[in-house]
């Protein structure tokens, strides 16, 4: 049968490719010739419709200050930053630095500055809500003149471009001195360098309430492109109206136009970068950030829904407070807007611990509580409006149930000794309530003390942050994985992976981020190694159903973990789509409906790695080829000796001399590096 042949190359090599491959069904490249047969269907397998997706958790300010489009930092004084470190003689990590010196993680005024003659303080006597008890108090002295108010410096700046911005805030006046007064607010976008006002809107003059807060809303039509992102969002008043008054403010918010125009939605350029990749699913909300640094700090989905003023936020796992503005419903709408599948991580009764690696486990006889949390979450997602949580979802503006087909039990729960009983409780309970959902286990055989028995129909999520050669050596790892491990009915999800450091003679990944070994940004060599690993998944679609690079997003002003796939700042022109982004872009956009064996007629794998898919409807065959260049110095013991086509012998872990997984310490190891959010001292 004649088909069009498209070869997609990822190359880093100094040797030239011989010959042309386009339009030929056999080709020479660096001494290798292969044949692809689409007529012999015996080796064809259906490809996975879910091969490439997104892993997302709020890390590196990927959510707040990242894809969650809110431009105001510290908008509701929910909590502050902290840094953990090790102390000689003590196990685990300790809080070694805290933004709030007296109450670690407590509220701060970071990110805010006064305008004119005002005094700014935090106040807890006039809470906006139970969830948001701390507000900003603004005292305007009796002698004040001119413009008075305050401004926010954004997430290390604010991007100002021609578009409509949506602003809102809650305000309350202090009764004793606010008698027959009225107030006129102006909201504006300004340069933090020159004070120039780019755009502003003046609200109708009003008499503020003195008992309950009022929410004020405005749009700002902006027609200019600011020369840089050193801009602020200001809320100001006229001292002639407000001198001598005291006001309370909370939940100040500013949104640009968002992805698919969602209220409380996603930053457009970052969301579009994901869409452009052709991803098929979103795994959320973690990652470690699901589990919490204590049981109480776990991701409590029910505290992430409803009006923003009722969301307390939480201490995230990555050194900063999460607003939870990007909550469960927003994640589901994210999937809806991208037409991708939600893969929801449910809390499984294990939380990390700042003070050690051991963590906290729920006892077996209380697992029903943990299961109930997960069942409630699924009812919120899928229940009809006659159910408690389905009705709540309708009240939140989304009466139509979402479709949830994948649920993951915990995250890397092999860290805990108790996963066997927790997995059983969760699997049995979830399956009984939702027989059609595919349940993903976050552990299989990583813990030396047990192997999880994975029922047919489940998926194992395996995570790898490694050196390049590790991924190269795993090209054929999944070839006979199901048969070799007795998991014929089990799939695999390469749920988090990326090259973490350069190759070392020992092959042991050093998680202390030594600058001479650690890769701080994805490199071509990272992309190649990751791509070879992904090819191994593509040619085993019966086994490897899903994959996702991690972490995906990083605000360049704050990192917990590097490298990351996409880096960005407030300035949308500074977004960097890395080499690791582009290999996934190529792989996920060029997929077929059948994986097709490639038979080498001369030569062998290495330096070429390949897989091939047939797009029946388009009558095209896509051949993906990665070429390992001289920069990759293989560790001879780890080098794959692959010689044949699918199916291939399973590269047994026990006989491999590569580093054995797992050996990765977690939580305490990623050092937080951050630039300071601008201080609250105005520069003009
Ligand atoms: O991606 C960073 C972290 O790595 C994730 O939170 C966790 O699942 C893994 O250990």
Q: Which sequence of strands runs across the widest sheet?
A: 5-18-21-24-25-26-27-28
The low-confidence runs, each spanning 5 or more residues with pLDDT under 50, are: 11-29, 630-684
Superfamily (CATH H level) name of the largest domain:
Glycosidases
DSSP strand content: 25-35%
Biggest β-sheet strands, sense, barrel? 8 strands, parallel
CATH architecture of the largest domain: Alpha-Beta Barrel
Radius of gyration: 27 Å
> What is the share of helical residues?
10-25%
CATH topology of the largest domain: TIM Barrel
What is the CATH class name of the largest domain?
A: Alpha Beta
How would you sum up this structure in a few lines?
By secondary structure, the protein is of the alpha/beta class.
Overview of this protein structure:
One of its GO terms (biological process) is arabinan catabolic process. It catalyses: Hydrolysis of terminal non-reducing alpha-L-arabinofuranoside residues in alpha-L-arabinosides. It comes from Lineolata rhizophorae. Its EC number is 3.2.1.55. It is a single chain. This protein is an alpha/beta fold and 684 residues long. The chain folds into 3 domains: 1-11 and 29-47 and 592-629 and 670-677, no CATH class; 53-69 and 259-591, Glycosidases (TIM Barrel, Alpha-Beta Barrel); 82-255, Galactose-binding domain-like (Jelly Rolls, Sandwich), CATH 2.60.120.260. Helix content is 15%, strand content 28%. It has 11 helices and 37 strands. An 8-stranded parallel β-sheet has the order 5-18-21-24-25-26-27-28. The protein has a 5-stranded mixed β-sheet with strand order 1-36-35-33-4, with helices on one face. Strands 8-11-16-13-14 form a 5-stranded antiparallel β-sheet. Helix 5 runs parallel beside helix 7 (419-433). The longest helix has 16 residues, at 367-382. It starts with a strand and ends in a 10-residue tail after the last strand. Residues 11-29 and 630-684 have low confidence and may be disordered. Alpha-L-arabinofuranose is lined by residues 57, 59, 286-288, 411-412, 463, 496, 550-551, 561, 666.
């Amino acid at each position: 049968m004649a088909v069009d042949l498209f070869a997609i190359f990822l190359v880093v090599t100094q040797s030239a490719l011989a010959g042309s491959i386009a339009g030929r069904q056999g080709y020479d490249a660096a001494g290798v010739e292969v044949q692809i047969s689409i007529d012999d269907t015996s080796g064809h397998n259906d490809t996975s419709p879910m091969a490439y997706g997104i892993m997302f958790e709020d890390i590196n300010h990927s959510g707040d200050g990242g894809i969650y489009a809110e431009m105001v930092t510290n908008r509701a004084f929910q909590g502050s930053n902290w840094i953990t470190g090790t102390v000689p003689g003590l196990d685990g990590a300790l809080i070694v630095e805290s933004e709030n010196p007296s109450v670690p993680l407590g509220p701060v005024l970071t990110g805010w500055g006064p305008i004119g003659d005002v005094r700014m303080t935090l106040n807890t006597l006039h809470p906006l809500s139970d969830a948001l008890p701390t507000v900003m108090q603004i005292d305007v002295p009796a002698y004040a003149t001119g413009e008075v108010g305050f401004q926010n410096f954004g997430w290390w700046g604010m991007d100002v471009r021609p578009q409509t911005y949506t602003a809102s805030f809650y305000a309350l006046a202090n009764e004793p001195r606010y008698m027959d007064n009225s107030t006129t607010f102006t909201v504006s976008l300004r340069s933090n360098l020159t004070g120039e006002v780019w755009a502003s809107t003046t609200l109708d003059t009003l008499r503020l309430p003195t008992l309950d807060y009022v929410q004020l809303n405005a749009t700002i039509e902006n027609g200019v492109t600011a020369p840089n992102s050193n801009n602020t969002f200001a809320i100001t008043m006229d001292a002639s109206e407000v001198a001598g008054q005291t006001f309370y403010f909370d939940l100040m918010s500013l949104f640009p136009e968002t992805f698919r125009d969602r209220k409380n939605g996603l930053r457009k350029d970052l969301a579009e970068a994901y869409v452009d990749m052709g991803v098929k699913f979103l795994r959320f909300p973690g990652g470690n950030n699901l589990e919490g640094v204590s049981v109480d700090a776990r991701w409590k989905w029910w505290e992430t829904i409803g009006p923003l003023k009722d969301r307390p936020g939480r201490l995230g796992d990555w050194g900063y407070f999460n607003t939870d503005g990007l909550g469960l419903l927003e994640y589901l709408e994210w999937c809806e807007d991208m037409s991708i599948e939600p893969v929801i991580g449910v809390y499984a009764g294990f939380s990390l611990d700042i003070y050690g690696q051991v963590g906290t486990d729920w006892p077996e006889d209380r697992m029903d509580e943990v299961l109930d949390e997960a069942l409630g979450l699924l009812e919120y997602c899928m229940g009809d409006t006659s159910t408690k949580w389905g009705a709540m979802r309708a009240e939140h503006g989304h009466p139509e149930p979402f479709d949830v087909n994948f649920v993951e039990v915990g995250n890397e729960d092999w860290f805990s000794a108790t996963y066997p009983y927790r997995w059983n409780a969760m699997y049995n309970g979830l399956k009984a309530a939702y027989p059609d959902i595919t349940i993903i286990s976050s552990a299989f055989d990583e813990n030396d003390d047990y192997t999880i028995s994975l029922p047919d129909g489940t998926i194992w999520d395996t995570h790898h942050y490694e050196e390049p050669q590790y991924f190269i050596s795993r090209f054929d790892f999944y070839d006979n994985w199901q048969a070799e491990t007795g998991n014929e009915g089990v799939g695999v999800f390469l749920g988090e992976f990326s090259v973490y450091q350069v190759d070392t003679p020992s092959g042991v990944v050093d998680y202390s981020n030594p600058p001479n070994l650690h890769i701080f940004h994805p490199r071509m060599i990272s992309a190649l190694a990751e791509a070879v690993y992904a090819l191994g998944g593509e040619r085993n679609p019966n086994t490897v159903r899903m994959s996702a690079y991690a972490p995906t997003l990083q605000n360049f002003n704050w990192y917990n973990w590097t490298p990351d796939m996409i880096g960005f700042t407030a300035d949308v022109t500074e977004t960097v789509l890395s080499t690791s982004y582009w290999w996934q872009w190529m792989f996920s956009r060029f997929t077929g409906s059948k994986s097709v064996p490639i038979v080498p007629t001369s030569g062998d794998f290495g330096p070429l790695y390949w897989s091939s898919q047939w797009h029946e409807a388009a009558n095209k065959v896509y051949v993906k080829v990665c070429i390992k260049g001289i920069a990759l110095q293989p560790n001879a013991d780890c080098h794959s000796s692959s010689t044949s086509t699918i199916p291939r012998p399973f590269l047994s872990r026990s006989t491999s001399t590569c580093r054995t997984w797992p050996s990765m310490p977690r939580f305490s190891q990623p050092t937080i590096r951050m630039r300071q959010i601008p201080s609250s001292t105005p520069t003009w």
